[in-house]
Amino acid sequence: MKAVILVAGKSTRTHPLTLSKPKPLLKIANTTLLEYNLNQLDGLVEEVILVVGYKKEMIKDMFGDSFKKIKITYVEQIEQNGTGGALLSVKNYLKEKFLVMNGDDLFSKKDIKRCLKHNFCILGKEVADLYRFGEVVANDDVVQKIIEKPNKDLGIANTGIYVFDERIFEHELKISVRGELEIIDYVNYLIENYKVNLETVEDYWLPITYPWNLLDANTFMLNKLKLNNEGIIEKGATLKGAISIGKGTLIKSGAYIEGPVLIGENCVIGPNCYIRSGTTIGNNSKIGNAVEVKNCIIGDNTSIGHLSYAGDSVIGNNVNFGAGTIIANLRHNNNNVKSPVKDELIDSGRRKLGAIISDGVKLGIKTSIYPGRKIWPGKTT
């Protein structure tokens, strides 16, 4: 069986993180989103077709022509004309039953396997923020219709996993009101002519729509953490809870770490720092003296200098914090933190949210950053 993963988009809603890399290469728990999904497909499919576009060479360089026992084929979506256009671009590669999945959300092998029992299937999940997604309307687990972005909170969301076969290409896609070729157009054709089953999520689905969604997914994956301590821990360091430390990493005296925490390889942590739960630190990074870090994703080759604080933040690769840098993560009025996305101020749904800092940022000493702020790649303060 083959799977098609859609990874061509620019993903402007996750700016500034996706200005320097494609969204599927964003990381949680030191693993890219795409690698997580390929792991779920291991043993279920023989070949994955990656529909690439934006910064495609970065994906090709990382994954090559195979992943474990899965063959990888790359097909470029020349025109960014929607999800239906992406699927149409691989028409000649597909026969019989195949799986389609969004490349920037996280799915579970258990749920994928249940979908594959059917000839045609959609994976849905009951949510409390349905207005963010498409609604799947079903009767006795048979899909009746899909409603895009309904104006209500409760319902079954379309997660972006489909089981199709080549019969979808009997239908000629038409441009939607959004000016795109939509995969939902194929689904509606199947609903009218065949039986489309609904399976609902029993394990997990982690949608990554905005940068702060990475924090939720990171916490979820850290709670599944398998302990693996290959580092050096000096006398006087305190480690509590589930903590994984990579090879070559040094935990200096006075460091206090509360799990779940994941620290990559060849890092220097401390002395006298406080790393709180929900934090992931990439490879070759440094947490200096008297630094506190809480519930953060920190990239590779990043240094958080002494006397700094970072909470509930996503921090990219090759970032440097000058001494005394403070990221505020809580508003005085305790309201949810809002953050700009394109030309709109979006409610993050989070009472605590710090900064979204992209790759290559250099922060000068005593930089203060308000909640929800974003810093573009390579900028300085």
Distance between the termini: 51 Å
Biggest sheet, spatial arrangement of strands: 5-6-4-1-7-12-9-13
User: Roughly what is the average pLDDT, rounded to an integer?
Assistant: 96
List unreliable stretches of 5+ residues: none
Shape: globular
How many individual β-strands?
Answer: 37
Rg on CA atoms, Å: 22 Å
Most strands sheet: 8 strands, mixed
Alpha-beta classification: alpha/beta
Helix content: 10-25%
Contiguous helical run count: 6
How much β-strand is present in the residues?
A: 25-35%
Question: What does this 3D model show about the protein?
Answer:
The chain has 381 residues and is of the alpha/beta class. The chain is 13% helix and 33% strand. The chain is built from six helices and 37 strands. The strands form nine sheets. The protein has an eight-stranded mixed beta sheet with strand order 5-6-4-1-7-12-9-13. Strands 15-18-21-24-27-30-35 form a seven-stranded parallel beta sheet, with no helix packed on it. A hairpin with a 2-residue loop joins strand 2 (27-28) and strand 3 (31-32). The radius of gyration is 22 Å and the shape is globular. The model has no long low-confidence stretch (mean pLDDT 96).
